[in-house]
Amino acid sequence: YLTMLVICTANKGNNNPLILPINSEHQIDETNFVTSCEWYTLNSEISGYNITVGKKYTVIGIIMFKNEIRYLISDDNNIPGFFPSNLFRIMESYVLYEWEIRIFPIETDQLLVIGYSELTQNYNHLIGLIDNNPNDIKLFLNYINNF
Q1: Going by C-beta distance under 8 Å and a sequence separation of 6 or more, which residues neighbour residue 132?
Q2: Please, are residues 19 and 28 in contact by the beta-carbon 8 Å criterion?
Q3: pLDDT number for residue 24
Q4: Which helix (H) or strand (E) segment is 124 a member of?
Q5: pLDDT value of residue 27
Q6: What integer is the mean pLDDT of 56-64?
Q7: How many CA atoms are closer than 13 Å to the CA of 142, on its beta-carbon side?
Q8: What is the per-residue pLDDT for 47?
Q9: Cα angle vertex 76, ends 7, 62, to 5°?
Q10: Rounded to whole angstroms, how far apart are CA atoms 21 and 38?
Q11: Calpha distance 71→25 (Å, rounded)
């Protein structure tokens, strides 16, 4: 299969973490949110990511939210995550034929999701990946092991 391949050009940046509502029909608030797993320095201005500069990663999905594109990849610990696209350079820009596209309305914005069927059709799976839910990670790993 020809897949989308990116190379890491940076593993630190000033990107905001990805924050989405757990229940997409309600506003984001202190009980209805999930956030990506970036870590911060003490001044909260630089986030670090568990990826390696110069390493190539296969993109398993793409999301666009609040004018930011993020790639779904397995990090250096084989944990799926949505990483800011500005940390990478595209090496191969193929999109898998079976990938689907879906838009989820989130508050006054839209979340564009491109990827495998479970990712685009099941918002809870997407949230489970961000939240490192074991069942959702298993679905993700099953998908990547079968292509």
Answers
A1: 37, 79
A2: yes
A3: 85
A4: helix 123-130
A5: 86
A6: 96
A7: 9
A8: 73
A9: 55
A10: 17
A11: 24
Task: Name the helix (H) or strand (E) containing 82.
Answer: strand 80-84
> How many Cα atoms occupy the beta-carbon half-sphere of 116 within 13 Å?
19
Nearest alpha-carbon partner for 63 in 19, 23, 25: 19
Task: Read off the pLDDT of residues 19-56 as tens digits, 9 standing for 90 and up.
Answer: 888 888 888 888 888 888 666 554 566 678 889 999 99
What are 93-125's pLDDT values in tens digits? Answer: 888 788 999 999 998 899 999 999 999 999 999
Interatomic CA distance for residues 97 and 7, integer angstroms: 22
| CB of 5 closer than 8 Å to CB of 49 | no
Distance CA 76, CA 74 (A): 7
* Cross-strand bridge partners of residue 4: 59, 93
As given in the structure block, the two tokens for residue 15 are: 């990107």
How do residues 78-100 score in pLDDT, each as one tens digit?
Answer: 899 999 999 999 999 888 788 99
Cross-strand partners of 56: 7
64 beta partners: 69, 112
Helix (H) or strand (E) segment spanning residue 61: strand 61-65
For residue 30, the Cα-to-chain-centroid distance in whole angstroms is 22
Specify burial of residue 36 (Cβ count, 10 A radius: 0-12, 13-18, 19+): buried
